[in-house]
Design goal:
This protein has 371 residues and is an alpha/beta fold. 44% of the residues lie in helices and 15% in strands. A seven-stranded parallel sheet has the order 3-2-1-4-5-6-7, sandwiched between helices. A six-stranded parallel sheet has the order 10-9-8-11-12-13, sandwiched between helices. β1, α1 and β2 form a beta-alpha-beta unit. The model has no long low-confidence stretch (mean pLDDT 93).
């Protein structure tokens, strides 16, 4: 009898959303999925549908003082013991980690119990936790063809699956890209990941205010903002007479992407993967404090393929963005070309590929008792 597949994921959308997409794909194949995460990740529990969500102790040592680091390591040790008990009880056929310290206890427990295990890396740079685990897993699923900082001893375990995106996002790309008509409405979508981005709220409205009146009249802006920025951003758009739909978070991101003629976004793995799968042209502004500058590497992958324009935050001014927006709004052919090139490097079947990898890994352990 087959056991469940256990997914260990961190507490941010970048880790949770790929795990959610894999869980849905495994469910369609008739496999039970159990989720292991920490307190933050448990807040995403509803996004996993009927999958049981199990909480274990975890912490991030790098976020603390020296004493705090010791406490964090003790919490990880406690979480590892909790995860060992959970694995013994559930007897999973495989455990898959999606990075982040909340996934570490379950992955360490799986290694100690010799359960087949894999990690998935969303970014074009292997994250700290996945680097720690790379030598202790049976398979590494990569989102990008060229992923940096993979230890030499683990390179033979890499399979490029892509970063799983939700099925509704993948469906956007299937319908293609329709450029804006000359002098017709132009849909601009602005988002900064699951938490929004303050710099986008500061620069984008100021850039739009600098556009010619005719260009502003065409614009329809959909922008994700932090709660504390909503009122000020709304005031700026009202002042320059631009139609804007603002929100802290969009549950219907697929619909927003489908309508978009151009996107301005951060370059987190989820954002880049969604844009490629949906086939939407974008201006990417990497977060300058991202670990190992991984957002710049993510953006490079899409921009290098001709599917986006990379604009480093140091150059992300109202004047620079206004110039780029004016240029692109008047060049629908360039936008359509970028949309096609983004779609060409997208991997809308990433969840299917990752599920194949995981089930192949699990096949060798079905019916085997956990030590």
């Amino acid at each position: 009898m087959s056991g469940p597949i256990m997914l260990a994921t961190g507490g941010t959308g970048g880790h949770v959303f790929p795990a959610q997409a894999l869980a849905a794909e495994l469910g369609r194949r008739g496999r039970r999925v159990d989720i292991v995460t920490d307190r933050r990740g448990a807040a995403f529990g509803r996004s996993f549908g009927d999958c049981p969500v199990h909480g274990v102790s975890a912490d991030t040592p790098s976020d603390h003082s020296p004493i705090g680091k010791v406490v964090a390591l003790l919490r990880i040790a406690r979480g590892t013991l909790q995860a060992r008990g959970l694995i013994r009880r559930l007897a999973p056929d495989a455990v898959v980690g999606f990075g982040g310290y909340p996934a570490l206890p379950a992955m360490l427990a799986a290694a100690s119990l010799s359960v087949p295990r894999a990690i998935h890396e969303q970014n074009a740079v292997l994250g700290k936790v996945n680097r720690l685990l790379a030598g202790r897993v049976d398979a590494i699923a990569a989102s990008f063809a060229k992923t940096r900082l993979i230890p030499e001893r683990a390179r033979d375990r890499i399979t490029v699956t892509g970063n799983p995106v939700r099925s509704d996002i993948a469906a956007v790309g299937e319908h293609g890209y329709r450029p804006a008509e000359a002098a017709g409405p132009f849909e601009l979508l602005v988002f900064g990941g699951s938490q929004g981005a303050r710099v986008l709220s500061q620069v984008v409205p100021a850039a739009i205010a600098r556009l010619p009146e005719a260009s502003r009249g065409r614009l329809r802006v959909t922008q994700q903002c932090r709660p504390e920025d909503l009122d000020e951003v709304a005031r700026q758009y009202q002042q320059c007479a631009v139609t804007a739909d603002l929100a802290e978070f969009y549950d219907d991101l697929a619909d927003r992407l489908a309508a978009a003629h151009l996107v301005v976004a951060r370059a987190g793995a989820g954002s880049v993967s969604d844009l490629a799968a949906a086939g939407r042209p974008s201006i990417l502004v990497p977060y300058i404090y991202a670990a190992d500058d991984h957002q710049t590497v993510n953006a490079d992958a899409l921009a290098g393929a001709g599917g986006a324009w990379l604009l480093p935050q140091a150059q992300f001014s109202a004047e620079t963005l206004a110039s780029r927006l004016a240029e692109l709004m008047d060049d629908p052919d360039a936008l359509a070309t970028a949309a096609g090139r983004a779609r060409a490097v997208g991997r809308p079947d990433a969840a299917h590929r990752l599920a194949d990898l995981v089930l192949d890994l699990a096949a060798g352990s079905e019916g085997r008792a956990v030590a």
